[in-house]
Amino acid sequence: MAVPAAAAIFSFPTEKRLVEWGWGWGWSGSSSSLVSWPSIRSQPNPLRADGDGRPLTTNTELFSLSVGAHLIPHPRKVDKGGEDAFLVSSHNGGVIAVADGVSGWAERNVDPSLFSKELMASALSFVADDEVNFDPRMLLKKAHAAIRSVGSATVTIAMLQTDGVLKVANLGDCGLKIIRRGLIIFSTTPQEHYFDCPFQLSSETLSQTSLDAVLSTVQLMEKDIIVMGSDGLFDNVFDKEITSTVAECEDVSEAAKALAELARTHSMDLAFDSPYSMEARSRGFDVPFWKKLVGIRLTGGKLDDITVVVGRVVKMLNSLEGMADMD
Ligand SMILES: [Mn+2]
């Protein structure tokens, strides 16, 4: 891309890559530094029936997700779209995931984005797999086993069943939060070996496996908001900012974009005392003592790829009256 990376991040991209709901997995390619979905509702399959093929009930409440996503690459990685990847699928109640390619691979002349992108593409191909059976850890296992790229990635993946049960598998420092009536009621916990070295799925055998992912199950309610992101979001934006930003937005696409842009603003602000700088200080990283003497301390956001996926839980009364005629 001809546009210098530094310029591209400040002028917001005019080109958007739109991905059809249902098959979409996205990363920003060379022609775009942003992926954005319009607010689209998934289409849960209403043809659920008992062993005789008859509908279980004539009226069923089906949960699904309305999803918006927004990705802003690291300012120096705009040309290839950064190293994060994500997927959105309408399978069952909806499947969303974010993967963050571990950047250390660049030192070995490996493009860190290949692994995260292939992991998401692979996961998308297995969402409806019988063995996966709505288990996101099994989905990770199969997706991981099927890919060939060299590299590693942190990943969070969530699968919503149409009965409203959300299953989340988290490995490393991507994450997911659930907001109910303005309050965060659930957060994944980052896993790491040491500061800035998260658990990760890797092409190397001496790494974590899908079994190291923490599996969580949450019963969702209508209007719950899911905020999923890479560490580029959570290292730069505090929980209270996430809830207040989401509350101000009209829909999920707007919320995903607003959160990503807030994270980007903070990531470039050297004076902002970010979640990342607070964490770094708590681990003993700080400016030299002579700077501390004059009141200077380690601050600033963290420059990174920023991926935000926002899902809103919708509930539809699904009338199956027509099913009787089909029998
Ligand atoms: Mn990251």
CATH C-level category of the domain at 16-42 and 55-230 and 305-315: Alpha Beta
Instruction: Flag low-confidence runs.
Output: 1-51, 321-327
Strand content: 25-35%
| CATH homologous superfamily grouping of the domain at 16-42 and 55-230 and 305-315 | PPM-type phosphatase domain
Distance between the termini: 57 Å
Fraction of residues in H or I helices: 10-25%
Reported for the largest beta sheet, the result is: 7 strands, antiparallel
The geometry reads as globular
Listing every helix as H and every strand as E from the N terminus to the C terminus, the arrangement reads HEEEEEHHEEEEEEEEEHHHHHEH
Under the CATH scheme, the architecture of the domain at 16-42 and 55-230 and 305-315 is 4-Layer Sandwich
Structural class: alpha+beta
Radius of gyration in whole Å, from Cα?
20 Å
Task: Please tell me the overall pLDDT.
Answer: 82
Q: Quickly count the helices.
A: 9
Can you count the beta strands? 15
Question: What can you see in these coordinates?
Answer:
The structure is a single chain. By secondary structure, this protein is of the alpha+beta class. It has a domain at 16-42 and 55-230 and 305-315: PPM-type phosphatase domain (Phosphatase 2c, domain 1). It has helices at residues 5-10, 112-126, 136-145, 231-234, 239-248, 252-267, 275-282, 289-293, 321-326; strands at 25-26, 40-41, 59-72, 84-89, 94-101, 152-160, 165-171, 175-180, 183-187, 192-194, 197-198, 201-202, 214-219, 225-229, 306-319. Strands 1, 4, 5, 6, 7, 12 and 13 form a seven-stranded antiparallel β-sheet that branches. The longest helix is centred in the C-terminal third of the chain and has 16 residues, at 252-267. It is globular and about 70 Å long. Bound molecules: manganese (II) ion.
